[in-house]
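Slide 14.
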Amino acid sequence: DFVLAFPQADLDVPVYMGIPAGMELAGLGNQSSTHLLKLKKSLYGLKQASFNWHNKLKAALEERGFVESLSDPCAFISKKMVVLCYIYDCILISKESPTIQEFIDSLTNGPENFVFTDEGPMSSYLGVDVSRLPDKKGFTLSQPFLIDRIIKALNFDPATTKGARGNTPAAYPLLSKDED
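Slide 15: predicted structure.
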């Protein structure tokens, strides 16, 4: 989980902003509305913030020998490792633990000086529970909390999986234009 990811990325074009309400700059007094600030780094809320962040992360990964997947620009593959990204959260997958640690060290101590938290072994990611198979050759992915929410929203009896309006969830619309 990259900490304050967007401000870690450089801007691709000059960006200026008004002085935020409540901020007083020495020597300006009441005239702060006539001045602008030039941003040095990207901020959350800028339309290009996600793009700039992705480019910074992509460049750092490519510098370390990763290739961006043609089918999914959030997947990066090297000979020893796969990195899956969702905005500023990443999953690191390798057969060897030292490979992951070396990669983490290179991000921390490399020229980018990335700041992130290491959440340890993966047990959940973006609401998906991840469990290792007993043979240690794969994983199972499940979303029990989402499934429970859908069952409750449809008034299904979890024991029979039959809903109040029919026998299958597909017969009942989950969303409509009128819902909040």
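Speaker note: Residues 104 and 118 are 9 Å apart (CA to CA).
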